[in-house]
Sequence to fold (115 residues):
Amino acid sequence: EVPLMESGGGSVQVGGSLRLSCTASGFTFDDSNMGWYRQAPGNLCRLVASRSAEGRTYYQDSVKGRFTISRDNAANTMYLQLNSLKTEDTAMYYCTTRVGDRTLQGQGTQVTVSS
Fold:
């Protein structure tokens, strides 16, 4: 059983939109703080956005106003809406959470933005 599985990536042009999904299984999703990280080639993996179990959100400065994180606890799914995409948003996007002392991360979904 894969605890986190991302989908929704793809190739778009500058200004386009995508919606990433992360489906969770095997742990209590409702009680979990969830996050989206991204890693571009040659760069460190960085937190893009997170949403706590209580609904608090965090966004990296570079995506504020363009990305929206949400979650559907009934569906055990987290989303990341990406709008007004820029070439610098090109990266592999990963869904992550911590369960106890373990960090769980999905296999990632690729977002490529071209000009």
In short: The mean pLDDT is 96. Residues 50 and 56 are 8 Å apart (CA to CA). The chain is about 0% helix and 55% strand.
